[in-house]
Amino acid sequence: MEKSIKYIQISDEIKNKILSGILKPNEMLSSENQLAAEYNVSRVTIRKALMRLIDEGYLFSVPGKGTFVDYFNKNIYRIPLSLESILKSPYDGETLIGSKIINPDIDMVYHLQIAPKEKVISIEWLLSIENNPVVYDIKYIPFFPALPIGEIDLKYSSLSRILSSKFNLRDLQEEIAIECVCPNDKICRYLGMNFDSNEAVILLNKFIYDRENNPVGWSLNYIRSDYCTLKAEFQC
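Structure for GntR family transcriptional regulator, as requested:
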């Protein structure tokens, strides 16, 4: 079984244990090493599965302690809005376009609530499925001296995962907006689309705030519409 699919199978199995009540709210999961041995996969695969569930609100992580089941109301519709849950199939290619420290434009100043003279970390990735580019991902993070910038280039990570090196994930709040937009020429080139076709893409906007409600990160995922889907889950 391909590793990119295996981590989704593992996260779905853990999610089912949460939804069925086998894993209770606030219960601590086994360690990454124990889960890796249980599922016969690497720690990287386990970490990816857990981060998917953290992004979807089923788990939370406490640095130095472990990963725990989060509280949630089962009697509501849940629409998972992590990138992995929107894509029809798992991405299997990750290409770093670049990461750099930049001066913010007016949108960054507004959304990150920073001064125009402050610096911002910009990280761009292109994700693909069977060598077809499907997601142009760009993240903006206010420059924090403690943030391990050198490690950002090593592998693709969610915005929450990057911020976990400075913040307790339990203290972070997410605001997500999804819309259809017409991509500009740059995005069309990255996604292999014809700019003149006026074909829309799905834009997944994610804003992350600390416990004082200060914005600490902003990510934009431009997703080719023919590779994504939305579905709601209902548990009663």
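The first helix runs from residue 3 to 19.
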